[in-house]
Amino acid sequence: MQRISVVSYNIQYSLGADHRYDLERCIDAVRDADIICLQEVERNYRRTGMADQPALIEALLPDRYCMFAPALDVDASTVAPDGRVTNLRRQYGEMTISRWPILSTRFIHLPKIDTGDAPNAWCGMQENVIATPDGPLRVVNAHLTDITETNRMTQVWAMVRQLAEAPVEGGAWNGVELDPEAHEHWQFDAPVPPMPHAALVMGDFNDTPDSAVVNVMLRAGYRDTWSPATARTPGDVTFKTNPAQGTYEDMRIDFVFANDGLEVIDANIDVDCIASDHQPVWTTVGLR
Predict the structure, then answer these.
(1) For residues 285 and 121, what is the distance between their CA atoms, to the nearest angstrom?
(2) Does domain 4-77+87-172+192-287 have CATH number 3.10.180.10?
(3) Which region among 39-48, 66-75, 238-247 has the lowest average model confidence (pLDDT)?
(4) Does the model's pTM come out above 0.90?
(5) Largest CB tally within 10 Å, which of 23, 40, 51, 261?
(6) In whole angstroms, what separates CA 255 from the centre of its chain?
(7) Is residue 204 within 8 Å of residue 10, measured between CB atoms?
């Protein structure tokens, strides 16, 4: 059985606990994992100098397969005095990085509630199928809203429905080309991509282990991979006290969940990393 090292990390667009922006520091903290799920990756934001963070991350990990999926995608274009438009998109979302090919990927938006003056943005889940040495593995990279528990509950319900329905739907496409010489053929010149049962769901859930949100995941058959029994090192905090963001106690709000298609070998939270306001959450698993 192949031991697969995975890590989930909300990089807060590279803003560290020391109030410094340093994207390379974020990537150095997790680069040894086989599968990396990052949240809060952005493109064309003024706070990060209009940087294209997905492209920069790909350059920092040139031997990996990478997929960026924006939850938020709005116009950031500029217009020159002569009227010429430079098309730019301001994007913010999840990025999945793998040692092995990402056979298929899709981004699924989760429900959003209009919260008036309280900031709230589109959130979602990036669903990937990765060709591990032991077979295909579904990896979901998710980020739930921090604004209200009510909105998070609608999101996690939508998530578990999608998780259950995906293997029934099948892969990204299916079928056989009856006449590959015809001009109207599909040109799907590759094997049909799978949609396996074995699944990891990783990300920032913005809620604690005893919350109703996490309970939905547990009742849906997904195991919280971190526990005192699986932990390689002490420490269970993924988001430290931060009064500037309305957090007045240490919390565990970042998770790696696994279904029964996977064996959980061990887990760890890197409590010493300061590259973000979150901590990287590590797990080692194997396909059953």
Answers:
(1) 32
(2) no
(3) 238-247
(4) yes
(5) 40
(6) 11
(7) yes
